[in-house]
Amino acid sequence: MPERQVTEVEGRRLVLSHLDKVLWPATGWTKGEALYYYAQVAPALLPHLRGRPATFLRFPAGIGEEGFFAKNPPPGLPTWVRTVTAPSHEGPKERVAVDDLATLMTVANGYALELHVPQWTADTGPDHHDRLVVDLDPGPGADLTDCCRVALLIRDRLAADGLTAHPKTSGSKGLHLYAALPPTPAARVGGYARALAETLAREHPTLVVARMAKALRSGRVFVDWSQNATAKTTAAPYTLRATAVPGVSTPLAWTEVEQCGSPDDLAFSPEQVLARVAEHGDLLAGLLERADPLPPE
């Protein structure tokens, strides 16, 4: 395969490079395969990225070597790539918005293997969030099956408050649950998520922990409410993950969560994810279609 390949994506000229470079040594999965995956999954992925300031986890040397988070637009980024303003400790900064296939292929060609986005868009602004997210992280001695137990508790609690929960795997060890909101003050969303986590920890103390201290997590699931902070980002639906073998943050049906008997039941390869999208469409489509308000305080 040539070292550089010129192609056109949505009318944009792109130069793709090192397509045969192995990025996942354990399986021999290459950069070209990663780009192919993103090109094929893009119709399901892009609506969950569009308008959101992205953070990338880049691995120029491949998985197993040290990667790094990249927030600033990379040098040499084409002028047609849209950027949006996001707050930072150093003041407002420009971030890439992965709005279209050409941008997605550009950043993936730059070894941005993981895509992370916040719970707000350029349209809502950072002070108002349009998603609630709950990150379920198993501590030592717990696993994904325990996360599924907690996810069902959260689903029911959200439903009682008039919210619809949508599950996906983190692509690593845990689960993410989302609920779509009308633009809601960030502090209100974060406060609701924290109260939810603390209530569950009181009611299920042997299963759930809401405090961040790692010493408290043994045998329990940490309900990470802090992902709702404006500065935080969460692995996007359908993003690849930098696991030993190529993993994907995969949208789920609730029946899969209910019936999960082993972490392997909810571990999907990129090829399996593409087959799932071809068969079922985007299982997180409901997150884009209906937003319900938080209950009154």
From TrEMBL:
The molecule here is called: Non-homologous end-joining DNA ligase
Question: What does UniProt list as this organism's lineage?
Answer: Bacteria, Bacillati, Actinomycetota, Actinomycetes, Kitasatosporales
Gene3D superfamilies per UniProt: DNA primase, PRIM domain (3.90.920.10)
What is the superkingdom listed in this entry's lineage?
Bacteria
Ranges for domain DNA ligase D polymerase = 30-283
Could you say which EC number(s) this protein's record lists?
Answer: 6.5.1.1
**InterPro entries reported in the protein's UniProt record:** LigD_pol_dom, NHEJ_LigD
- Identify which top EC class this enzyme belongs to: ligase
Q: Which organism is it from?
A: Kitasatospora cinereorecta
Q: Name a Pfam family for this protein.
A: LigD_Prim-Pol
Q: Which residues form a coiled coil?
A: none
Which keywords are on file for this protein? Ligase
What would you give as a GO molecular function for this chain, any one? DNA ligase (ATP) activity
